[in-house]
């Protein structure tokens, strides 16, 4: 299983972002945005925006949310037939909308339901069925509470658990606040791996560099990076060498932009807007000379009528 991944992020990890990241790292596991089972089951084909991806994006996991085992099983079949490398169940999102649908983090209080969903998916597909969850929620945040959840879901056949090392408050904090305010408890995740050595345990939460990732890999099997992957994407240009031992030449930022141009032309000709693609590239030059000029030019021009690849080239000229 993969030792490094980029977290699923709503309105961020769409197919255009994932293609962009693939120019930086060949091997890092990528995730879709979370899709509710109804969205997956309602897609008319793999070409639907909810499911479509480029073959270059693999290894790619489809993340789903829901609480109905039969629907989950059908989603798993769709994912496997469509070429996804993995299907992942979201048990970490704390938003009120998600709670009202009885999925996401609130299901940590219903481990038997999660186990039923995992079991139903495992019975119909050969691709890995994995779970992403928190260390706890509300008052159910003891280490023992997390162990009960993991043990129950493990019995259903789940072997990979991605653990966001923060609890979630389902009332009183927004999803954004739940990503920063509850304190990180990395030691609980390390302990989980120590006590369940047969499981593949991945850690998530507050990790911003590959150096930090390598430190965590001394204690767990894998590391998931979230916001830093979007705010400083170029850190993944070193991932293949540092994490996977792939000695391919690291592409420069300029080369990445140049390689994105044919992709932009292709998808704009299919009806997408420049902003839908270039918006994911705003932070490519973060902390580099000219980064502000690059970001400003794209931000001010990519939404304009008729904006196309030339806007990106003009922004690149400002960096150079």
Automatic annotation (TrEMBL):
Organism per entry: Bradymonas sediminis
Residue numbers binding FMN: 8-10, 63, 132, 164, 204-206, 226-227
EC id: 1.3.1.91
Active site, per annotation: 93 (proton donor)
Listed cofactors: FMN
GO molecular function, one term: tRNA-dihydrouridine20 synthase activity
Protein name (database record): tRNA-dihydrouridine(20/20a) synthase
Family under the similarity heading: Belongs to the Dus family. DusA subfamily. Belongs to the dus family.
Interacts with tRNA (site feature) positions: 90, 176, 179, 292, 295
Pfam families referenced in this protein's UniProt entry, alphabetically: Dus (PF01207)
NCBIfam families: PRK11815.1 (NF008774), yjbN (TIGR00742)
Keyword Flavoprotein: yes
Stored HAMAP family: DusA_subfam (MF_02041)
Keywords in alphabetical order: Flavoprotein, FMN, NADP, Nucleotide-binding, Oxidoreductase, RNA-binding, tRNA processing, tRNA-binding
InterPro entries: Aldolase_TIM, DUS-like_FMN-bd, DUS_fam, DusA, tRNA_hU_synthase_CS
Enzymatic reactions: 5,6-dihydrouridine(20) in tRNA + NADP(+) = uridine(20) in tRNA + NADPH + H(+); 5,6-dihydrouridine(20a) in tRNA + NAD(+) = uridine(20a) in tRNA + NADH + H(+); 5,6-dihydrouridine(20a) in tRNA + NADP(+) = uridine(20a) in tRNA + NADPH + H(+); 5,6-dihydrouridine(20) in tRNA + NAD(+) = uridine(20) in tRNA + NADH + H(+)
Functional summary from the UniProt entry: Catalyzes the synthesis of 5,6-dihydrouridine (D), a modified base found in the D-loop of most tRNAs, via the reduction of the C5-C6 double bond in target uridines. Specifically modifies U20 and U20a in tRNAs.
